[in-house]
Each structure stands twice: as structure tokens, then as C-alpha cells.
Amino acid sequence: MSAIVEIQGIEKKYPGVVANHNVNLAIKKGEIHAIIGENGAGKSTLMKILYGMVMPDSGTILVDGKKVIFKSPQDSIALGIGMVHQHFMLADNASVLENVILGSEPTSFGGVIQVDAARAKLIEITKNYGLDINPDQLVAELGVGERQRVEIAKVLYRGAQILILDEPTAVLVPQEVDELFRNLKDLTSHGLTIIFISHKLDEVLSIADDISVMRAGTTVASVIPSKTNKKELAELMVGRELPKRREVSTKPGLEKILEIKDATYVTPDHREILHGVSLEVHSGEILGVAGVEGNGQSELIEMIMGLVKASSGNVSIMGHDISDSSSREIRDSGVGYIPQDRQRDGLLMSAPLWENRILGHQATAPMANGFWLNKAAAKKDSERIVVDLDVRTPSINVMAAALSGGNQQKFIVGREMADKPSLLIAAQPTRGVDVGAQALIWNQLIEARLAGMAILLISADLDELFNLSDRLAVISGGKIVAVLDPDKTTPEQLGLAMTGEKIA
Ligand SMILES: Nc1ncnc2c1ncn2[C@@H]1O[C@H](COP(=O)(O)OP(=O)(O)OP(=O)(O)O)[C@@H](O)[C@H]1O
Ligand SMILES: [Mg+2]
């Protein structure tokens, strides 16, 4: 097979950081080519260069053997390259169809947008590749997995032949991953080429035809799955042995920290999302919540955080009914919150990292000092987080946007655990972090649990749920359908419970 994309000697520097250095890569037509590497290794930067979003300082890109210079994504799209970003870029207040056609509206001679033709084309694409989306739904109503399918449809709509997917599976549950992989295989059998970034080595080994490894900005190896294994890949990425996870043994305490009693949530347009949910999380306990995305997890989190109000029933934290409290009051009462969408809800992207330490914590000590913000404390503690969570950044003064996705995530985890909350709501706490950082975050959660923190863990990662949870609550169709003991449950049983099947 000939190389459809060749990348030679790419260099890209940011202030204080070499993001890409002497990057060389050859992608064959019709293959699935995985790119792996630690957080901050330069994967997204390289993909943005290939997509024309970022200009390299030097180096060459060849598409179909011809040298190209992309000045913007329009140039790369014209050559059939499409990209789905690590962080989605959809307009919330528009429909799926509007989002798909945004920027490439089909017009008739009069300049009128031909919505019907566009809808027909989108429906054909979704049928061909089995992408389950509804063209007329509002994007704001979609879960992360659905948003991703919209992004993929959008790229295909523009006629992409080479698809770049930056961590597409980070946000998916196992069933959805299987579905995505079937879609990707389908696409390659139609002659499309897929470049795919992932931190999940099992996945990469199962789906990729070729694997390229990046470390510290440069390509260090290219291997094929049949000639390597997880351990070797991890060592190629990290250049050292991985930290081991600590064993948990002590029993959780008895003090009820979070108590949800018979809570329902009905949306303003009368959709009943949560039905009679009751849950308790005790001090020193990690309660895992497992479920296929879109089964009420987001609303459950929003209800606890005071972002939506329960329609009936109540939520209390340490014995205080917080059903009518504001989000601010709930946080200030000692609740840490790692949101699932880090860029939308977790960070001010254009503010320096140290200011992001204050975000959400501006009203209580140590970040607040009477009426004043304690900037010195924010800076000092940001330095500590950078060390404790191994956040790769040139300094705490750079904008949050300058950090790689995984490093942004590590910073948020550090911040939300910093003030030792009594309750931590951890939604997808290791989404998008590399294997080493995942072990680090798991250890931090386990240590906090041992110190008495109550943790509600919402995760799409079954390994994470099994490894960390003292108990596992399964949510399906907005109901808690089972509470399981992870030591007595197999992943298959959990999978069945998640899809609403009764466990035999
Ligand atoms: N716009 C930017 N300004 C400054 N520095 C940047 C910018 N974008 C990326 N960097 C830096 O370049 C390096 C590579 O980042 P990149 O996002 O490519 O990493 P990555 O391999 O995709 O990591 P992750 O797995 O965490 O997504 C990082 O050190 C990051 O901080
Ligand atoms: Mg990235």
C-alpha cells in the first residue's frame, strides 16, 4: 500500500515548549493508524498541523505524494482531510442538521439553503455508516457519545477521505466503542483512511493496522499490533515502568455524607429523566455509578450540584437538605466537583492556570481572604498541584488552553481535591489521561477515600469502576436498577445490568 499521507521532519514550538520535534510518519491508504503517547506528547498538535489549524515551524506534509501547505482547515478539507477534535466544537443551540451543514450550506442558484437536500444527504450518511443520530434534535440535549457521532457525520458530510479522530473513545462506554469500531472498519472497507488517537492500549491493539508512538514531541517508534503488546507499548510511550495501584482494604465509614431520597427530575418540556432515585454515599466510601451514557447520569450530577432542581424527593449533604440551595452554596458547603466536560464546566481556557485554581473556590478559604482573593495562596497551591499531579506545563502562568487535554484534566482533579471536600463528585475523572496519569489519579482518589472523603464516581470506564468502587450503582432509564458488590460481579453481569437486563 502506498502512503496517502507522509509527514516529514515536522517542528512546532510554543513559548517554553517544543510541542513537535522531528516528527516522521507515513499513513497508508485504507488503514486505521493509531497514534499513542503520554499526555503532552504532541499528538493533538501534530493532528492540528495535518488539519491546517496550526502552522508548523518547519517540515513537510505530502498528501497522495504531493507536497501541500495548509493555511487553514479549508485547505485540508478540500483535499479530503477531516478531523473530530478531542474537545467537541458543536453549537449547542442549533439542531444536529444545522450543525452538520454549518459552514458548508448547500445553496440553490438563488442562494437559498436547501435544507431538504441536506437532510436527505445526512440521513444517507447516517444510514450507510450506522451513525445513530436524529437530524432534528437540539445539540444541547445530546450526550457526549451522540455529540461525537454528529461530529463524525459532519466530517463525512464534507466528503472526508482521511478521518482524524482525536481520542474518540475517551468518552464512550464499551458498547459504544464496539459500535464505533464497527463504523470505522466499515469506513476503511469503503476506502477511507482513519488516523486515531487513544490512551487505551487494548483498543489500539485490537483495532489498529499500524501504531505510531510519540514521546516528548517526537515519533519514537512505529509498530504493528501482532508484533507488540500492552507492556511494550506503555514502555515505549513512557520510557519507564508504570506506577502500581495501591490495594484498598479498610471498610467505609457509616456517616452518610450524600443522601438522595426518591428524587425525580422532569425537564421543563415534561420529559421525565430521573425516576425515584435513592442513593447514599458514606464517608470513606467510593460509590461508582455505572450506566450507558444518556441514562440520567448527567442530570443526577446536575441535581446534586444544584444546577437543576429535583421535581420531587430530596437531596441532602451531611444532613442538610440542599434541594433548594444554589450551586455556589453547595460547593461552599464542602463539595468538590470534577465535571465531565472539562472545557465547558471546569476551566477558564483563556485565564492563567493559577487563576483557574480559584475558579469555583473563590468564596471560601484558603482562596478567599475576607473579601479578597488570596492570589498568593492560589499561586502556591497551583505549584503544588503541578508537582503532585505531574501536570506538564512550562509554568502556572500559561493559559489553561495551552495545556494538553490530559494535563488540563490533571489540574482540575488536583484543584477539586485540594480543599479536602467532604464529598467529591467525580465525573469521568480520568477521561483523556494517559495510563501513567490514570494510575496517579486512581491513587489520589483511593488515598482521599482512606482519609474519609465520600466519593461519587460516575464513569464510562468499567475498569475504573471495578478498581475503585466499594459499591456499584447501576443507572438505566433514569432509575437505579441495581446496587452491586464489585467483588461479586463480573464485567459481563455489569454490562447486562447497564442495558436494563435482570441479573440472573
Ligand atoms: N496553543 C498552545 N499554546 C502553548 N502550548 C501549547 C499549545 N497547544 C499545545 N501546547 C503544548 O504542546 C505540548 C503538546 O500538546 P498536545 O496537545 O499536542 O499533547 P497531546 O499529546 O495531544 O496530549 P493529551 O494526550 O493530553 O491530549 C504540550 O506541552 C502543550 O502544553
Ligand atoms: Mg491531545
UniProtKB/TrEMBL annotation:
Membrane topology designation: Peripheral membrane protein
Signal peptide segment: none
GO cellular component, one term: plasma membrane
CDD domains in UniProt: ABC_Carb_Monos_I, ABC_Carb_Monos_II
Keywords: ATP-binding, Cell membrane, Membrane, Nucleotide-binding, Repeat, Translocase, Transport
PROSITE patterns per record: ABC_TRANSPORTER_1, ABC_TRANSPORTER_2
Molecular function in Gene Ontology: ATP binding; ATP hydrolysis activity
Protein name, entry field: Unannotated protein
